[in-house]
Here is the input.
Amino acid sequence: MTSTSEYELKCANCKTNFKVELYDTVNLDLQPELIDLFWYKKFNGAECPKCHAFAYIDKWFIFNDKKLGIWQVKEGQALSFWYLLNGEGYFDKFKTKNPFLRLWWKVKRKIHRVGVKRPWNKGTVKVLGGEK
Here is the structure.
């Protein structure tokens, strides 16, 4: 079962308060399309409705799948979990034989390793409240 909770957030760019649904549990057996959110770095992400700044919200979640079993991913472990999914072949459908895109993929992976600011983290969002 996949479940979400509503959180109240505050955009660091424009200081707008807004509410967003974030995942607490993910079951890929029931909703395999959720793997797209992991690939595009949109999982547990929030976009400010006013200035459209996007930020990933680093919070715990439970991941369930037949292949990997049940995982509790804690704060600060999301990027490591992303690499685990990549290593297990979850993102194979996104990869291509196009040499330009393969080069882009290698550069993107190198950016992750050296900790350069990622282009999809244009802003920062601060969690104000807990579950409602």
User: Anything to note?
Assistant: The CA atoms of residues 81 and 107 lie 19 Å apart. The chain has one domain: 3-90+119-127. The mean pLDDT is 77. Helices lie at 35-39, 78-87, 99-114.
